[in-house]
Each structure stands twice: as structure tokens, then as C-alpha cells.
Sequence to fold (855 residues):
Amino acid sequence: MKTKHIQHLYWRIGFGISPPELKKLSKQSKKVIVDNLLNDSKKVTPLKLDTSELDDLLSGSYEKTKENIRKVRTMSRQKTKELNVAWVERLTNPKELLREKMTLFWANHFVCKDNNYVYSQQFHNTLRTHALGNFRDFVIAISKEAAMTKYLNTKQNRKRKPNENFARELMELFTLGVGNYTENDIKESARAFTGYSHNLQGRFVFRKRQHDEGIKTFFGQSGNFNGDDIINIILKNRQCARFICEKIYRYFVNDIIDKNHVNDMTDVFYADYDIANIIRYMMFSSWFYDEKNMGNKIKSPIEFLVGIKNVVPVNFKKQKQLLYIQKLLGQTLLNPPNVAGWKGGRNWIDSNTIIMRLKLPSLILNNAYISKVKEGTSSSAMETKKQFFKKHYGKHFKTESDWNYFNNAFKNVDINDLKDHILACSINKTANEYLKSLSKVSKQEHCVQLMSLPEYQMC
Amino acid sequence: MDRRKFLKKSSLASSLFFVPSFVKAFEQVTSMSLGYKRLVIIQLSGGNDGLNTVIPFRNDLYYKERPTLAIPKSDIIKLNDDVGLHTNLAPLKRLYDDGHLSIINNVGYPNPVRSHFRSMDIWQTATDSDKYLQSGWLGRYLDNYGKHPYSAIEIDESLSLAMKGETTNAIATQNPKVFYNLSKDPYFKNIYNHLDDAHLSEHNLGYLYKSMIAAESSAKYIYETSKTVSPHKEYPNNAFGKQLKITAQFINSGMGTKVFYGSLSGFDTHVNQLNTQKRLLKNYADGIATFVQDLKENNTFKDTLILTFSEFGRRVKQNASLGTDHGTANNVFIIGEHLKKQGLYNNMASLSDLDDNGDLKFEIDFRTIYATVLNKWLEVNDEKILNRSFKQLDFI
Fold:
């Protein structure tokens, strides 16, 4: 497989690729590479923190939990922050790369959050478990997650007092897309999801007495449907396969949909709703590697951050600062804006986030310093300048960056070829000329220069 | 012909004849500083207890439902025979007496949600409680009517959804100098200097370059404009005071910003409410009073409207921990010089006709307030921004 194509593939289904890894793969065929990616992600490694204290608070009676509700919330807030940090770490060093990227994708599809950590951790791992599985099983599992029954009020959805929140979002955001159902479909399907609830430990409970056993008419069919039946009926509609394929296409291929490609994907996905299959199909297709699909996407804040960490491992001495950066960049994991999720694409970028993105690599890796030493001049003054920067701006983020790792990983890469590894698209003319006028003092300084370009925001 | 008309006419003339550009620039500045209306939004996060803020002290139910949490009659600052303000809102009473305060009672929306997160989302996106939007109402104002990103500024380190549009986002900054310093590394300028337009029309990468140039110029504009005035007014020494101080500095410097957004948090008083709310309301009222005074001294209060809201009110009945749980409708404060209806805009909510949860039934949809502010104050098409037509109120 062509190096350029491998790099592209790894940016989209991962967070970039290191030169030694790239060299290893460059001798392999597309089939071997794609199959390995899928095989390597067969296993599921859940991401779990120690929750024994919380479990204990949730193991007794409702009264006991109610008494301790404040404690549960406080501990949950703390644990959620820890899971955020652990998740970023997981994305940086994953055993199952493709599964992890898919988990990140689904987290912005089945959007949910909860103030009980036990439920949100369980939800989080359900995303991981089904990330490459069958979409039907996935939707059914999501509909029964404690966090989701709370988030979209299925818990309050009772026979004589239906709550339509989940039924509406199930169709609008999770399966069909807006405009592909009627208000009546929502009303009728909400009745099918009555009685959904969970116990204190977060396991699904079906409250039969709250369930509406009457006949529901949904998408032209009538019967005493339950929630699973409704999901089955929805999935019979080809629009559901199309809706998911469009989302996958926009996320992994291009913001702008190519109708023919999405049509082909829909045919494949509609046949069995197998997520691994559709991702394999996409990775195999020749259009995935079309010139216009390469280096044209704006990285999400997490792709940007994890991408940096993959080139230069950087450790945040204060976990709070890692969360703070996510906030500044506009994407805090486990804290989505609402059930519609992050808009993505160009919406990641505004006046604040663009400045933060351009400045961040130098801030966390190089004491805010970007080398501007002119070509042909001595770099002796640079060290003094760097010391000055360290003193004045280096205090902002308490980080340790492992430049030894970088120097080792890039030791066989010529400094003039560094851009081909750091950037996913070519540099615009003006920036390129400016870079040419500067001295390439070291690979480290040049790497920071490249990461400080708008081009580095592309993948 | 008055001065304003004259200037308008002469700016028309300047486009017909070749008037030196510095004269044109002067005219634009002048016409802007004449009647430039600004909106300041203050968000009280956590759900302020409206019933202990604007208090129906003649209503026995109030004391009955809150045996240990009600504010004693003697401590209440009376507005009339029935209604009074919390002890620490004395500065608001002065605004009330001056006719600069309008209190809109019982504001909410149909099918209220009691989750902070979701209810705030509804207030910020101005949507129905069963719909989800990815843009905020002020963001959509910016999309349609904002000329620059800095047309709306949030005094915070990151943006609220309220300030994010479909295509344009506002600026978030607590410190214009830091924002400017981050943006002004000469490295960035050299990257885009001499960049031609052809490049900027390129797909996503061109968009990044455009955003970068706009951000740099906004940061520079905000920093350089704001430093033309040196704030000397003493503000309360807390985070909210600092926000207002910088907002006043922005306004008094004549910055071309139409919307400012600030917030004060900590109102989620489930436990031991009395002291927490006391402290927060003091921060709020003292800050606002100083802010209004600052604007008055700089002759900018007349062009400024301040709207204060919270995502919900709290339950009528106190809970077992000397606090209150999440409720529904709440009061909204409108502060400005040109209020049509000063004082209490409408009656207090009924404390006997409650919903199934024991919460107030709202009377005024918050979006009618937004619609009024957009239409009558910012003078734009409110329907375009709220995606629907709402009744106009007559407080301004």
C-alpha cells in the first residue's frame, strides 16, 4: 500500500501513524492492513475505574441511596473527570485502535450524559462493546441503558402519561433523521417504550404495570408493539441505513456527501446492519483514497490533541489542565452540549478556538516558543529567547514532553521530509515560502513550526 | 436637520464624491456612537430561588411552605404593599425607584424541564422543551446581523451555546490582553501575509486561514479599542465584579459590540440556602449597581439594556435540608433607562395553583422577552432568529 494512503487511513481510523510503524506497513497490501485493523479490534477492553465506593452506596435500599445522593453526585463528578483523562490516555495508547475510534464516533451519535458515574461508565462501555457490532443490537442496548432512560426520560414514560422524548430522538437523531416520520409515529412508538426503567445498580428493569399493552400503529403497521419491535420496524426502513452511512461518510471521508458512494454503502449496510462490514467496505473502496478525500477534514479537538500526543508524548502534571484544554478547544469528552452532540466540521473553528489551536502545540510542547530564526543566521540567540519564553509563558501549562521519544521515532526521517509525516495536506504557498526563509534549527523546532500551521488542523 | 441626519446625509455624499478616507472613517465612528444600542445578558447559573428574591410577603402560603426558609417580613425591602426584595438587593431598590428596573414575574416555558443542563440549553437555544438545537439565540443574531465575530462577546474563557450560531460564533474573552498576545505571534502573521483571495476560497483549509485572519484582527481590535479608556471605578472584588468591570470598559471604549454575556454561578441551593443566596444576591446587586453607575458616568447607560435570567426557579415548598429543589418559572430583571413599564411588569405567580410537582405554572414565555428585546431594542427581525413569531411585550 502507498505510504500516503496508509497515512490517510491511519488519520481517519486512528490518530496518525509514527514513521517506524509506517515503514513496517508500507510493505503490506491493503487487504492485509485493513484485515489486521479489524482483527486487532475484535476484542473489547472495557475502560473502567474503581467504583467500589460508589457501588457500595448504590447497593442498598433506595432510602440509603437517597440519603447519600449528594455524596453519589460529588463522587460521580470527580470520577467522570478521571474517566475523561483515562479515555484520552486510552485513545493515545489503544490496544484496539479501530474500536476506540469508533467508540469516539458513536459517543457523538448516541449522545448521553449522566450525573451518576456508575451509569455513565456503563453507558460508555456499551458504546465500546457495540462499536463494531450489529447496529440493531446496538440501538436496542442503548434504549435500555440506565443513563439513556434518564437522559431522555424513558423512565418517566408511563402508560397513562407517556413521555415522547426518547421516541422522538430515537428517530430524529439515532436512526432516521428529521422529516422521516410523523408526529403520530412518535406518539405511537412512545407508547411502546413505556415501562422502561432501571434499578439502582443501573441494570434495565421493565415495569410491566407501567407498560401500555394496547395496539399501536407505527409506520403503517399495527400490533401490541414493545420497544424492540419499534426498533426492528425502524431498521426495515432503508432510510435508517442511509442515515447512518451518511454520518459515517461525513465523519471518516468528507464533509460533503458523494451520493453514489453513500448509496453503495447503504446497500452494504442495509443487508445486515453489520458495522464492522461497512467500515471494512469503506476502507477497501478506492474512493476512500481519492485525492479530494485526503487531508481535507478539520480535526476534532480530541483528534488534534491525541494526534499531538502521538508525535510527542506529553504528560499533564495537572489533570485539570487536560480538561481545561478540551474546554477551550470546544470538546470536553463525556460532556456533550446536548443530545444533538457536537456539530463538528467547520463548527469546531471560531475566533477563540483557532487561536488556541495554533498556539497549543508550542504552549504544551515548547514553552510557547515557535522558532523564527532566519535561514543562514546563527541560532545562538534562540536559546536566550527560549529561556525568556520559558520564564514568561512556560508556566501556563504544567506539562512534560518526551522529545526523546520523538527524536527516536523520527531518527530516520530527513528534516526536510518531516512535513510529510506531521501534515496531512500540502502547505499553502505563502506559508511555505515563509518556512523556507527560516532556518531548520532542529527537528524539534521544525516540528513545532509545522504543528503551528493551520495545515496541521487538517487530517 | 439634526446632527444625526446630517451625518447620515454626509456619509451618503461621501460615497458619491471622493472624500478622503479618514473623513469617512470619522463619520462612521460618529454615527456609531450616536444611539448604539447594546444588550448585556447576565445568567444566574444553578437556578436562583426567585421566590426569595422577589418576595410575596403578604401571601401566607409563602410562609407556610417555607417555615424556616422564608425571609422575615422585617428584613424585606418593600416595593409595594404585597411584594418586596431580598434584604441584599437594596441597590436594585434604588434602580427600581429611579424607574430603571422592570421585574417580569413568572417567566418560563411549556413542559418545563428540571434538569439544569437541559433547562439552560432551552433558555440558551430558545427552543421548545422537546426540541434540540445546536445554535444559540444570540449566535443566530450574530449569523444574521453581526458584522464581526466581536459583535457579541462573552466575558468567559469559553463560549456558551447561546453565543454560537449556525455559521458565526461570538468571541469569548476574560482578558483582551491575553487573547491578543496569544494571537499576535509574528509567526502567524507571516504565514498569511500576502495570501491571495484564491487561496482563501479553498475548502476547509481556506476556512481555517480566514478564521485565523479574522481572529487576529478581532483580538487586536478588542485590545486596542478597550485600552483607550482606563477604568477607574471600584468594583466589588469578586469574579462577577471583574466581569462587569471589563464589560463596562468595553462599552465605554465605544467598541462596536452589540451583545455582552456574563454569568454568576452557585445558585443551586439544595442545602442551607439562606447564606449562599444572601452572598450571591449581594454579589449580583452590588456588581450591577456599580456597573450602572459606571455606565451613567460615561453616558452609555442610555444605550444599554441589561437582562438577567436563571434557568429555572425553585420549588415553592422548602426541602428537608434547609434548601429548595429545582422548580420552574422564575423572575427576569430588565434594567435600562428607557423602560416603558417600570417596576413590576406583571403579577406574582399564584402559590396555590401549582403543577403536579408543586411548582409554579408559568405565565410569560421567556421567548416573548427575547422577541421583544430583539425587535424593539436591537431592532432586528425576531422571527428570523427565533424561527417563530412570538408575542411582543411592552416593557421597552
Q: What stands out?
A: Chain A touches chain B through 46 residues (CB under 8 Å). Strands of chain A lie at 196-198, 204-206, 216-218, 221-223, 314-316, 399-401. The two ends of chain A are 19 Å apart (CA to CA).
